[in-house]
Amino acid sequence: MISSNNTIIKNIIDKGFQLEPKAFDLINNLENHNNIDDMISNIIDFKIRDNKKKSITKNDITSFLTLNDKKETTLHDEKIDSMLEVINNIGSEFKPIEGINGFQKLFKSRYNKLLKIAYSRPNFRNIKSISLIKTDTNSGIKRIAGLVMEKKSRQKNIAITIDDGTGIIDVIAFDQDIIKQLKKILLDSFVIVDFVFSKIGTAILKKISLPDIPEHKPILSNKKVYAIFTSDLHVGSRNFLKDEFVSFINWLNNEKKDNDIINRIKYLVIAGDSVDGIGIYPGQEDDLIDDNLISQYKKLAELLKLVPNSIEIIIIPGNHDPVIQSLPQPPISKKYANDLYCMKNVTMLGNPAYVRLHGVNVLIYHGRSLDDAIAKTPGFSFNRPALAMKLLLKSRHLSPVYGKRSSSLPAEEDELVISDIPDIFHSGHIHVIDSESYRGTLILNSGTWQSQTPFQAKMGIDPVSGIIPIVNLSTLEIFTKNFKYNK
After folding, report:
1. Does the reported pTM lie above 0.85?
2. Which value, in Å, is the radius of gyration of the alpha carbons in the chain?
3. CA dihedral defined by 311, 315, 320, 324, rounded to 10 degrees?
4. For the segment 182-200, what is each residue's pLDDT rounded down to a tens digit?
5. 171 contacts: CB under 8 Å, gap ≥ 6
6. What is the pairing mode between strands 312-316 and 346-348?
């Protein structure tokens, strides 16, 4: 402590100020004060601004400490109410269209929505339809946009098939940098392609782009409030970490420990798989301690009723919840989760959902399509789900790949297009905490409350369990709190 104070005193002298002996003694006694350097700098700034005498007295320091204590007391006593606004509850009134007609409409909607996004970007102008390009005899670079229907990897090139609704064209990439890009573009993604025709009429790829999100300044809360982002509780599973979750809830109710943090927590967002469900995978009955869905949700409600009423709880479904597995998913039914619907501080939404928390735009998505993105992309792994989430943002679609682990319902509109740019993009499903900041958007995967299952052990997934990420909505900074016991 003395050595650090000597540095502070040197800084005071370097700025042309003197430190009175009593002030020096007081500084040495402030062992528990974390911001002595900032405090002294503020005192010096105040004295310079008001042309005060260039000496720091004991009274200067005590006056500043008293003022600071008053500020902290005011902040501590300030009552902050939650401000939850549901922007788009996508699955709540979704109406699928059966048959081929529904799928044709779905992909046409995807193309049109993403083409509109591309046109809104200055660097993606002059896009022409494939039918017109094929009859264009002029030389030079041509630009089209469409969905990637097929990728064929060869020894020295990759060929992709693009469909824009007016026609289909095969484009070949020989450039190694472009080939690396192509390997990280998912099937059924919307792409903007620049190419030239060779002398024999082959389309040679010169540039390929995803619609992507622009660099932007995120909207921040004008008050220092916190949101907890979590998912994958799996209540009903033998691997549910009930003791750790109860410890977390007890912490939320602790009025003495971490009080300044707890008083500012206004939101608890649960991104799916809040219960383990039934019949999700072969042999699941061996992994359950509760094989009744209604009972699983009752136990979840019993736990969440212990969360302070001042905290808004938002719940969306995942692939373990009893809703249709294709996207978008409707909210969990009252038939199973009536106790949750009876809670005043619980909001049940579909998957995905857009909400606004204290003015901050949040896209909540369980994340089933991350399985496909990780499996199909070189360099991706289940230990870094934020990279796959970033690819979805770049693709401006939550589930580009059709017909694999994640499927979409045929419908008039493709509701999985990321039309609005979120300030926070939150997913779960992978059971690993990971984050990235990308072009102004905070990407966050939130871990789990389930210990490693036999299936995860086979897949080499080491879950991050019993830890909560907490986001300061006024800065989008993340910190974590660990509730996992060492067993």
Report:
1. no
2. 28
3. 170
4. 999 999 999 999 999 998 8
5. 159, 160, 162, 193, 195, 203, 204, 205
6. parallel
